[in-house]
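FIELD: query
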Amino acid sequence: MTRGLARQGLDIPPWEPSSRFSGETLGAVAERQPVCDSHPSRGAVDAGSGLTRRGVVYEYIRRHPGTHVRGMANALGLATGALQYHLLWLERHGFVKTKRVGFYRLVFPTLVFGEEQELILGVLSQETPREVLLRLVDDPSASQGELSRGLGLSQPTISWHIDRLVELGVLRKAKTARGTICEVSVDRSEVLKLAESYHPEALRRLARSVEDPALLDMAGRGGVRLISPALVELIGKR
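FIELD: result
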């Protein structure tokens, strides 16, 4: 495995032996990871897995694709400088990539997602944009007033987020007999699939609020991890 990585110029993988790092133990870092929605098994990293601090960072990114740097630092209890150090190593060696989406610098595992999937995941990683997008996926005809009432947010707040989503290319505005509505301009089925895999609790909230049994059943299957064969071959088994 190491020889294969060396041939690709990747050096050693991010879960090298814990002796490579000193100071705070892996267990202390792993224990501070948040519960991912309502499924602790997906949000937590096994402190006995042998992962180093860098490995914990990589595993967090794999489980939370599209996470933004500041949120990751808070979730893992790492100083921003320490996190940036590990991210730089991971990006330099081809394990992750970062990109600017709107106001945030987001992080993704490499060799897993396409451009549109990364755009969708970037939106899904932010609470209010995620709720707006999921509502419009469920009800494409929803007006800004209906979104405001359904989400319990002011119309100016909804309008601001919609404008940002339009700028990103996730939504587009269209004029109808009822007035201007917002249409989802990315693949709606892809939004639901990624929400099912990485944000099932948000999907459950939506399903309960609109009383949609099919959507609730989809949310109940959450936790599917979309990992490409290329990535599996690259990183191997821990």
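FIELD: remark
The CA atoms of residues 204 and 217 lie 9 Å apart.
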